[in-house]
């Protein structure tokens, strides 16, 4: 029997980064501490109490009274699938609004479920005109209208109340991707008329990836009850998950105990700061970043009225090496940012100011580092103005 090659493995010691990409974001120290608490069983009465607390905290953050509000064990993509597989059946008419990578993923799932897919498509970096969505719905019986509230691939925010009204005219459910918005900007499911929503823990909640908060309105729950076919996913079947998260507390799968500790603490951190204060902090740091970027002579991809405060897309100047800039930020400054996805690959940088990463010192450090790197590449920028512009904000 071969002996384990112990000398080939050093003690785990990942580098300390400042995570300013599209996710994951910096983890709050309180969350890391909570995750180190002793593991207990997933049916332990003490853990059941923690589960109930998490549901209540999520309701506050989603601004909803939906009883079916809980975290799915999996990343945000699992939340997206959970919402869709539970209400969409083969032959259902589904309208998906696609202006980025994550709208395209919704459309892909709808097709895999055998839905009659109708897409509303606009270029990356733009928002939807309500007339386009109304035309796509066309007054026809429709099961679901899906839209990304905060498109992580482009930095565009899409208003939801008007789309909800269009969907409800034909008794359709409105599904909203809130992965990047939850905890960084207002998300008000009940007031906006959102029937299904999902998010992720690794963005503005400053928690590691691994859980996907979801919320189902009474209309969505009724659609689940009215299904004519069995939910195609066993793992994400809400009828079984709810026997664990409520009611009988029956075993379904082994919940990620310590991740749920972390989520509970992350939600407390947000709510203790206060939702309005959290949103104002994200907005203020975003405005400071934009001021510095524009003072440098660079430009943002998205029009001001559509921009996400927590995910900023900066157009890469002509002649600048995208990969070299991101490598230099990582190697020389320990700052991670994201590159473009899909149609924006090689054209933009995606800079996250999410949750615990949305701090004044991160804005200042990033602007100084970016200016230094671009100067080294002989880029045509205005030097020495970015920090002053950011400080003025």
Automatic annotation (TrEMBL):
Transmembrane segments: none annotated. Residues 39-341 form the Aminotransferase class V domain. It holds the Pfam family Aminotran_5. The modification N6-(pyridoxal phosphate)lysine is found at residue 203. Gene3D superfamilies: Aspartate Aminotransferase, domain 1, Type I PLP-dependent aspartate aminotransferase-like (Major domain). One of its GO terms (biological process) is glycine biosynthetic process, by transamination of glyoxylate. Residues 1-24 are annotated as: Disordered. The keyword Transcription regulation does not apply. Keywords: Aminotransferase, Pyridoxal phosphate, Transferase. PROSITE patterns: AA_TRANSFER_CLASS_5. Substrate binds at residue 350. The keyword Electron transport does not apply. One of its GO terms (molecular function) is L-serine-pyruvate transaminase activity. Its cofactor is pyridoxal 5'-phosphate. CDD domains: AGAT_like (cd06451). Residues 1-13 have a biased composition (Polar residues). Belongs to the class-V pyridoxal-phosphate-dependent aminotransferase family. PANTHER family: ALANINE--GLYOXYLATE AMINOTRANSFERASE, AMINOTRANSFERASE CLASS V. This is Alanine--glyoxylate aminotransferase family protein.
């Amino acid at each position: 029997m071969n002996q384990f090659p112990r000398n080939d493995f050093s003690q785990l010691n990942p580098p300390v980064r400042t995570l300013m990409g599209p996710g994951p974001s910096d983890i709050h120290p309180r969350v890391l501490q909570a995750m180190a608490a002793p593991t207990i069983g997933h049916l332990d009465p003490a853990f059941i109490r923690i589960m109930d607390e998490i549901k209540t905290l999520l309701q506050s953050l989603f601004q909803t009274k939906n009883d079916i509000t809980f975290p799915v064990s999996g990343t945000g993509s699992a939340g997206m699938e959970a919402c869709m597989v539970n209400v969409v059946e083969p032959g259902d008419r589904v309208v998906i609004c696609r202006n980025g990578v994550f709208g395209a993923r919704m459309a892909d799932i709808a097709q895999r479920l055998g839905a009659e897919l109708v897409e509303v498509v606009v270029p990356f970096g733009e928002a939807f005109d309500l007339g386009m969505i109304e035309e796509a719905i066309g007054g026809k019986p429709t099961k679901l209208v899906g839209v990304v509230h905060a498109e992580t691939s482009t930095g565009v925010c899409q208003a939801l109340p008007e789309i909800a009204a269009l969907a409800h005219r034909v008794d359709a459910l409105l599904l909203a991707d809130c992965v990047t918005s939850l905890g960084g900007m207002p998300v008000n499911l009940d007031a906006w008329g959102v029937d299904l929503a999902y998010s992720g823990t690794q963005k503005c909640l400053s928690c590691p990836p691994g859980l996907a908060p979801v919320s189902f309105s009474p209309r969505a729950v009724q659609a689940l009850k009215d299904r004519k076919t069995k939910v195609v996913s066993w793992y994400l079947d809400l009828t079984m998950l709810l026997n664990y998260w409520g009611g009988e507390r029956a075993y379904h799968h082994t919940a990620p105990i310590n991740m749920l500790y972390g989520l509970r603490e992350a939600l407390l951190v947000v709510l203790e700061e206060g939702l309005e204060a959290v949103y104002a902090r994200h907005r203020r740091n975003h405005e400071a970043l934009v001021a510095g970027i524009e003072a440098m002579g660079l430009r943002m991809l998205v029009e001001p009225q559509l921009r996400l405060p927590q995910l900023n897309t900066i157009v890469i100047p002509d002649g600048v090496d995208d990969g070299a800039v991101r490598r230099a930020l990582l190697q020389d400054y320990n700052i991670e940012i994201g590159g473009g996805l899909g149609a924006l690959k090689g054209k933009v940088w995606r800079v996250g100011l999410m949750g615990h990463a949305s701090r004044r010192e991160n804005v200042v450090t990033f602007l100084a580092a970016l200016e230094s790197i671009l100067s080294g590449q002989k880029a045509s920028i205005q030097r020495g103005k970015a920090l002053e512009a950011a400080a003025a904000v």
